[in-house]
Amino acid sequence: MKELLLLLLLVTEASSRSHSSSCGLGCDCRGDLKFTICSRALFTQLPPRVPPNTELLDLSDNHISVIPERSFSKNRKLRVLLLQNNNISVVEDGGFSQLEFLQKLDLSWNQIPALTDGFSVGLTFLRELQLAHNRLSSLDSRSFLHLDSLQRLNLSSNSIHTIQVRAFSSMSGLRQLHLEDNRLTSLRSGIFSMLRSLEVLNLAGNRISETELGVFKPLTSMSLLNLADNQMSTVYFKTFLSIHTYSTHILMEGNPWNCDCDLQRVFRKLRSIQRLFLDDYFNLTCREPPVLRDYRLMDVDTELCLAETVTVLIITVTVVITVLAAMLMGERKRKKKKKRKHWTQQGELSDESDY
Questions:
Q1: Minimum mean pLDDT range among 60-74, 106-120, 277-291, 299-313
Q2: How many CB atoms lie within 10 A of CB 92?
Q3: pLDDT in tens, 300-345
Q4: Separation of CA 173 from chain center
Q5: 266: left (phi over 0), alpha (psi -120 to 50) or beta
Q6: 233 and 255 in contact (C-beta within 8 Å)?
């Protein structure tokens, strides 16, 4: 009996060693080697041995700093690659070029400063790209060249202050774009021109103070637009009127609104558009004028504007009356002058007849 137990222990140990050898030191392989978990393994570079059948590779929470060219040439079956929370600052051109079946790539919580021309080479079928919490400062037409199938792009919590007009031109199938907590100050027409499938656009927590009139017009599928916590003091009615969707929910809380009558009229008209839903309208608060600071916009939208309208009306009527009075006085003076001239001429004719 003891010999049998000893034999079982030896077989188990040998099996474990074989499994560990095929998986690579510091990694744990599961599901017939299709799931390779190498998180928290203190790696400073990519592991040299990953089973070729791996479909999910978890390299999160390590100290990897560089993704070299053709890094995953022996792992072409990868569908999910998790690299979040490393120290990655360099992704060499073609670093992911061998991953033609990859569907999800997570590079969040790294130190990536820019996306080069070759960053997206080979990622034709990628559906989700996570780049939150990096050091990106700008996006241009080369940033996402080959991401034709991408549906979800997370760029939140970077330092993005510039987006060129054709930055997203290759992603006509994109459904979610997260740009919250960046440094955008304005939105130019054309930057979303190809995103006709976009359903969620999150721009909260930026520094946006102005939007060009046609910037949202191409977004014909948008169901959620988040503009909360920016620097918007006013909005233009035509900016949102150009949104031609069946139903769009808009969030604008946390902006420093200037609650003058123009702004109140804009929101009154926006709320009358049946396809637009201002979900947080009742939470909008005023920054200006000082007398209305911290008041809710909905609480100051009628009486002041009515008083302003009456004042303007009184001023207008006063001006009209003044102008009419001036015109009447001018006409009277003109008639008096004409009569005086007439009698003068009559007197001159009478003097001539006496001679």
A1: 299-313
A2: 16
A3: 855 557 545 444 455 555 555 666 666 777 667 676 666 666 556 5
A4: 16
A5: alpha
A6: yes
Q: What is the pTM of this model?
A: 0.80
| CA nearest neighbour of 95 among 77, 64, 69, 121 | 69
Between CA 124 and CA 146 the distance in angstroms is 6
CA atoms of 209 and 211, how far apart (whole Å): 7
Residue 339, in any domain of the structure: no
Cβ–Cβ < 8 Å for 167, 191: yes
Instruction: Give the CATH number, domain containing residue 296.
Output: 3.80.10.10
**CA quadruple 111, 113, 115, 118: dihedral sign:** negative
Which three-class secondary structure state does DSSP give residue 73? coil
Tokens read off for 233: 């003091």
Copy the structure tokens of residue 202. Answer: 């999150």
Are 230 and 255 spatial neighbours (Cβ–Cβ below 8 Å)? yes
Report how far residue 99's alpha carbon sits from residue 324's, in angstroms, rounded to the nearest whole number: 81
Domain holding 39, by residue range, is 22-147
Tokens of 107: 């590079």
Number of domains in the chain: 2
